[in-house]
Amino acid sequence: MSDETLRRSALYDEHVALGARLVPFGGFEMPVQYAGILREHDAVRHRAGMFDLSHMAQFELRGEGVADWADGLTVNAVATMKLDQARYNIFTNERGGCRDDVLFYRLADRWLLVVNASNAGKMWAYLNEQLDRGGVRLDNLHGKRALIAVQGPEALDVVAPLCDLDVRAMRYYFCGEGRVDGAAAIVARTGYTGEDGFELFLDAEEAPRVWRTLLDAGREAGLEPAGLGARDMLRLEAGMPLYGFELSEELSPLAGGQAWAVKMSKPDFPGKAALASQLAGDDYDRIAGLVMEGRVPARSGYRVFSGDARVGEVRSAAVAPSYGNRNVATVLVPKEFAAVGTQLDVEIRGARHAARVAQLPFYKRSN
Amino acid sequence: MAQPEGLLYSKEHEWLKLDGDVGTVGITDYAQNSLGDIVFVELPRVGHQIKQHDSIGVIESVKSVSDLFSPIGGEVIEVNPALEADPAIVNRAAFGDGWLYKVRLKDPAEAKTLLGPAEYDALVAEAG
Question: Order of strands, edge to edge, in the sheet holding B55-61?
Answer without folding.
Answer: B38-42, B55-61, B65-69
